[in-house]
Please model this.
Amino acid sequence: MALLAASGLCKSFGGVRAVDNVEIMVPQGSITGLIGPNGAGKTTLFNLLSNFIHPDKGRVIFDGEPIHSLQPYQIAQMGMVRTFQVARVLSRLSVMENMLLAAQKQTGENFWKVWFQPHLVAKEERQQRERAMMLLESVGLAAKAQDYAGALSGGQRKLLEMARALMTQPKLILLDEPAAGVNPTLIRQICDYITQWNQEG
Ligand SMILES: Nc1ncnc2c1ncn2[C@@H]1O[C@H](COP(=O)(O)OP(=O)(O)OP(=O)(O)O)[C@@H](O)[C@H]1O
Ligand SMILES: [Mg+2]
Model:
């Protein structure tokens, strides 16, 4: 069964048909590429698949559920996260804080548990920090963990976005131009990591 499937997707902006009757199927465990020239509609399709914008027509099924009535954050909680062509990070937070915020279902999100189960909250946060550090190491950002995310270069922000997406332990990641603005040596490394992350599930 497809993990992500879309059919008959259409989106126009005024007279521009950005996405015209698109069918796409992403099988579980696959790495699926989407290519096209500038302005072909790739980013618009990603925005539709993650419900950042609503389609004029068509539907999207993720993990067996239609997602048209869900907010992007709810889709992320279901396990589909996306990155942006121009990376979006929380500039005034540190790289590590950007990572920690992404972790899902943290005990510390519950007001009462913060007060009555502080040890559990602290233990979980330690584990999240370790996991975040491991992911930051894999994208070469470990030394920047305490820096403001806003101080990173464009390429480094893309890497942070990818690492942050992985912090959510997603079932599917939509990467919008993961290599744009990243140096060629690092691109090879990112390709290797994408393969590795895929194999790890
Ligand atoms: N919010 C918007 N308002 C108006 N037109 C838009 C909007 N978003 C996209 N478009 C138009 O839709 C078309 C597809 O744009 P889109 O950004 O999806 O292309 P792309 O394939 O991601 O291009 P690139 O490779 O340059 O990132 C373009 O003609 C663009 O001008
Ligand atoms: Mg684009």
About this structure: The beta strands are 2-13, 16-27, 57-62, 65-66, 80-82, 172-174. Helices lie at 42-49, 72-78, 95-102, 111-116, 118-138, 154-167, 184-199.
